[in-house]
Design brief:
This protein is mainly α and 296 residues long. 83% of the residues lie in helices and 2% in strands. It is built from eleven helices and two strands, in the order αααααββαααααα. The chain has helices at 2-37, 41-61, 63-66, 72-104, 109-133, 153-178, 181-208, 213-222, 226-240, 245-269, 274-295; strands at 136-138, 142-144. A two-stranded antiparallel sheet has the order 1-2. β1 and β2 form a beta hairpin. α6 (153-178) packs across α10 (245-269).
Length: 296
């Protein structure tokens, strides 16, 4: 009886945390936005865009509170959809504006392309370095990184999610800090759309790995918090110097492309549902393309 009562109390406390933590976080985020909006509107908008993306990730975890069933086929389709959105965002919202920004600074066609190309490679190299340096654990592939065996498994999952979401936050921040508001808004909208199934997949994967339902939802909700932080940093750097704009856009694109190729696509093809994953990728790409070209 005591064990049963204790379990009920722990479950109740966990559900309370699912309400209290987002409310406190929202209040703090609103206070920071108010502090920034007058003097640094671009940074404030980037912060807001990152928060919306984080909120979309948190919203995606909510179905796990009521049900834990999500077929492998659906998961792989969601992975593919997210990859398609990020691919189109990299091309239309980051690389193309980056080349144009370099031309606006006086670079010729070849110089502009080489500048953004070098920035793409730098972004991918930075993520590759983090991949080998920061200990983390993939949902399927297992542990990677230096001394990952020394850390608790929970924190390895946390680090893996941070590595996955950081490029998205940087992309939002660079977009608001350097491109026009409509294009940046389209980028943030596309990332937020793909963050909803991403949050669900993360929570379901944690649940399947043996974590409790409440813990899986809470960790899934908090997994997106790196996005507003990355957005804040990216926008701050871009507003500091316009010369860095093509480099920042290319860097964010390279980081996202690395995550797509190294993480999302292999994960979506691992269980034999390549057709569904590819279909999801195509739909995600077209949706993000339409958002960018129609709204920008």
């Amino acid at each position: 009886m005591n064990t049963h009562i204790r379990s009920l109390a722990e479950a109740g406390a966990g559900k309370a945390l699912m309400i209290i933590v987002p409310v406190l976080g929202a209040l703090g985020a609103w206070a920071l936005w108010v502090a920034l909006r007058d003097d640094y509107p671009q940074v404030a908008n980037a912060w807001l865009g990152g928060l919306i993306a984080a909120g979309a990730t948190a919203a995606g975890t909510l179905p796990v509170v009521f049900s834990q069933r999500l077929s492998d086929r659906v998961q792989d389709s969601m992975f593919g959809f997210g990859a398609g959105v990020m691919l189109a965002a990299s091309a239309f919202s980051l690389v193309t504006p980056g080349i144009q920004a370099a031309k606006d600074l006086g670079a010729g066609p070849w110089a502009a392309g080489l500048t953004v190309g070098a920035a793409i490679l730098l972004g991918a190299a930075a993520l590759l370095w983090l991949e080998h340096t920061v200990p983390h654990e993939h949902f399927i592939k297992g542990r990677e990184g230096h001394d990952g065996r020394l850390l608790k498994r929970t924190w390895l999952f946390v680090f893996a999610v941070m590595l996955h979401n950081l490029p998205e936050g940087l992309a939002i921040g660079v977009g608001f800090g350097g491109t026009d508001p409509m294009r940046a808004g389209a980028l943030a909208t596309g990332i937020a759309i793909q963050d909803v199934p991403e949050g669900l997949v993360i929570a379901v994967a944690l649940l399947a790995a043996g974590y409790g339902r409440v813990f899986s939802v809470i960790l899934g909700m908090t997994s997106g918090l790196i996005e507003p932080v990355g957005a804040l940093a990216g926008a701050a750097v871009m507003t500091w110097s316009t010369v860095l704009l093509p480099w920042g856009l290319g860097f964010a694109a390279g980081a996202m492309l690395f995550v797509i190729s190294h993480e999302i696509i292999p994960e979506s093809h691992r269980k034999g549902h390549e057709v569904y994953a590819t279909g999801g990728l195509m739909l995600g790409f077209v949706l993000m393309m339409l958002l960018d070209t129609a709204l920008a």
